[in-house]
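Fill in residues.
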């Protein structure tokens, strides 16, 4: 076993394909297959399972890829230290965010990454929490931020903040009444404009309504946030959202946010990393950076309605 074999094996696992790895490494596919065979014989274990679309690492293969990646990064760091040029983070990171989180975090993270890690190219994609989790499992993204919901044994989810949800309505016009707290039971009985049941936010609200034995009165189901808020402004119903999603409309006086009391409605935001493929120094370093930036936003009051 040598460094070249380990680098090539990690590439195969990351791409889930010997053919794709051979193209990327500019090595003949038979030669790469022979390297895998030699590793398997040396370690007396099967490292890859072949299937119609490529290969999948066995448990032993995944363990080898993880250990190999850590060893290779240590070697690269050692070379940098000895040359007097320690490595900073570099490469491409693809980050998945839910739409409400992207509103506040996407621009901030792009600006901070350009300043802090100029050699990192940050790509951001937006989708519902379920989509973010699916993209992470399929290797479409490197890191995901999503609301806690369905759990997967192939994903590590680290809580990063707790987000309070508010009843969002048009202004009442009654002096001193705007922004007055409302009991959860009363909030859930309002005519509501909500996302469809596949949306994580809707699932959270449905679960609390079921626990309170309330039949929700959902007058509209809309997954597009600006459209949802436009209908709330027109008085067709209320909605339940985190404060950050409507802060501009509240400051403009077009909407109000009423704290929900007696039974607060909240949800946990988590940072998700995959366990079904080897991590990297870049993704782990960027995950720490992202968590620190979220904490700074909350502490500075720039992410209202949240607690760490």
């Amino acid at each position: 076993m040598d460094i070249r074999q380990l680098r090539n094996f990690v590439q195969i696992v990351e791409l889930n394909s010997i053919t794709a790895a051979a193209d990327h490494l500019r090595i003949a596919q038979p030669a790469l297959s022979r390297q895998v065979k030699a590793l398997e014989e040396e370690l007396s274990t099967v490292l890859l399972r072949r299937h119609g679309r490529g290969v999948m690492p066995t448990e032993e293969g995944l363990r080898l890829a993880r250990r190999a990646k850590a060893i290779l990064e240590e070697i690269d760091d050692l070379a940098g230290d000895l040359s007097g040029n320690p490595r900073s983070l570099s490469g491409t990171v693809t980050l998945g965010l839910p739409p409400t989180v992207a509103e506040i975090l996407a621009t901030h993270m792009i600006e901070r990454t350009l300043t802090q890690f100029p050699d990192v190219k940050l790509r951001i994609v937006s989708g519902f929490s379920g989509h973010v989790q699916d993209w992470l499992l399929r290797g479409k993204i490197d890191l995901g931020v999503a609301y806690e919901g369905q759990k997967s044994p192939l994903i590590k989810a680290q809580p990063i903040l707790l987000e309070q949800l508010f009843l969002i309505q048009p202004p009442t016009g009654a002096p001193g009444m705007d922004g007055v707290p409302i009991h959860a039971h009363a909030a859930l009985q309002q005519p509501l404009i909500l996302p469809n049941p596949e949306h994580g936010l809707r699932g959270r609200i449905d679960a609390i309504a079921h626990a309170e034995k309330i039949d929700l009165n959902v007058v509209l189901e809309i997954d597009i946030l600006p459209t949802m808020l436009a209908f709330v402004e027109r008085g067709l119903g209320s909605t339940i959202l985190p404060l950050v999603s409507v802060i501009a409309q509240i400051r403009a006086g077009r909407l109000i946010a009423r704290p929900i009391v007696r039974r607060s409605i909240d949800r946990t935001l988590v940072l998700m990393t995959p366990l079904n493929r080897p991590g990297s120094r870049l993704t782990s370093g960027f995950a720490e950076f992202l968590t620190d930036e979220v904490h700074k936003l909350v502490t500075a009051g720039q992410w209202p309605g949240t607690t760490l």
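The first strand starts at residue 48 and ends at 51.
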